[in-house]
Amino acid sequence: MNGAGDITLNTLDVTMALVVGGLFTIGFHLMLQRSLMRIILGFILLGHGTNVLLLVAGGTPGRPPVLEGKPVNPAEPADPLPQAMALTSIVITFGLTAFLMVLAYRSWRLSGSDEVRDDVEDRRIARRRADTDTDDPVDGDDADGDWPDHRDHGTAPGEHR
């Protein structure tokens, strides 16, 4: 079948799809870990996966990605948009990686560990909810009056006493 409806996949397209899928899968898996270094490595793999995806989306090098049923002219330049987007992605990934490395180093210097800990306030709220046998309303109101209110203590929400 020839024409605009003919879509053919070659081995390179399938291989690159598997590489992009693998980079995203491993990157997301690493970002769900509790170690800051694994989170940073996962973010780096996501950045590489995005770069490969953008370059693969550009199509065959030297040809425009959208042919619109016209015959291919080798003198036509390639579309520069995927390369420009990949370059922008590289710069953003580098900047965010440097920022995350500084945050991880600072956290390690302060706590002596690179493990992300649970928020103490979240654990306290979960423990209170587990201790109550009554159904609390979804909007956060406490019908029984046994949950502390931040207005009673002069602190703002999220502020520690």
Features:
161 residues; mainly alpha
What does this structure look like?
With 161 residues, this protein is an all-alpha fold. It is 56% helix and 0% strand. The protein is elongated and about 70 Å long. The mean pLDDT is 77.
State the gist of this model.
With 161 residues, the chain is mainly alpha-helical. It has helices at residues 11-31, 36-57, 81-111, 120-131, 150-153.
Number of strands: 0
Largest pleated sheet:
none
Strand-pairing-aware structural class:
mainly alpha
Ends: how far apart? 72 Å
Which strand-content bin applies to the residues?
under 5%
Number of helical stretches of at least 4 residues: 5
What overall geometry do the principal axes of the alpha carbons give? Answer: elongated
Order of helices and strands: HHHHH
Rg of Cα set: 26 Å
Would you identify the regions where 5 or more consecutive residues have pLDDT less than 50?
A: none
Share of residues in helices: 55-70%
pLDDT average, as an integer? Answer: 77
Q: How are the SSEs ordered, and which strands pair?
A:
Blueprint: H1 11-31, H2 36-57, H3 81-111, H4 120-131, H5 150-153
Helix pairs in contact: 1-2, 2-3
